[in-house]
Amino acid sequence: KIKKAKADSKLKEEIGFEARLPQGISMTNVSGIGIPTEETGNVLQFLEFCSAFGKVLDLKEGQADSVVAELFSSGRSIKRKQYSCVIQMMIQLLNLISDDRDEMSLSLSSTDTTWFSYVGEFLSQSGVLSDCFPPETFKSGVSEYEKMDGSKRLKLLIFLCDESLSTWAMRNFMEEQYTETETKKKEAKQKAAAAKEKEKQLRQKMQSDLAKTHMAKNGAPLSVEEHHAMLSRIKAEAKEAHGEMLEAMGMTSTRQRCDAVRTDPILVNDDGRVLWKLNCFEEEEKFLLQELGRFDVLPPLEKWLEFKPEQKQEIEKYLSAKRMKLMRAQKNANVEYN
């Protein structure tokens, strides 16, 4: 027991000597859309949801960005309700949820003003957000919605997104995506094993070919031209086989995940900082740092930071060093424990 405690202490000490992440900058816009700092996390959650489940909802390209733009642009109040992409998406989600509940299939349209009361009904059934949206909010009709700011509208939208995850359509999609991901993992492992075996067989074949050539010449040494020709052929075949093996090994080492099931952070630090790489940024691979702040402060002061493209290599080096030190520390801890 004492040895185990020492091992754990040493593990934490080892991990403490990590390189630092580069300095990030406060995230004030997403996909070119200016957003309030305090709403960054909610906006990213919504965009990640759309990225994962857009196929189920039949979302059009750019629809999620249009929703965010409408929520936080100054001109949203003059947009007519039937053309509001926020309301249209809420209705999409309401129809999906209601179709899953036999007792209330709605089939709402963008010209139907009763959608807002159904949002209130779903909220009442769930028992969440009652402090933000008391029941009387939904008794005044859609006019109450028109008084809300972008942050409140986004809360309603995210609530419907969360509710939709329990529907059969969403669960079935998640199961399909999970099965597909697992199949790809299995295929990648099989391909890697086959490529490794091919390289091994090629090495054996090259040794055999070399021996046969010497036998054909009755043990006489090869001429310079023959030696170079054979060496070139062997190198070309070896390079091709080794390349196939590296490619296959890369497929297995690349983290394949089912994003429809959940999005996992890349790294969680003890100091309340979480590193993410989200899928909603299709135009480029982007690292984001979530700073959760002190856990004894309520409400928590969450901040989101982004990095410049030229900092990507520095972040990857940091992650690599983190993994290597963790592995080394765990190995040392196991040795000391045993």
TrEMBL record:
UniProt-annotated location(s): Nucleus
GO biological process, alphabetically ordered: regulation of DNA-templated transcription
Sections of the chain in a coiled coil: 171-205
InterPro entries per record: CDCA7/CDA7L, DDT_dom
Residue ranges of domain DDT in the record: 37-103
Assigned keywords, A-Z: Coiled coil, Nucleus
GO cellular component assignments: nucleus
Protein name, entry field: DDT domain-containing protein
Species this protein is from: Noccaea caerulescens
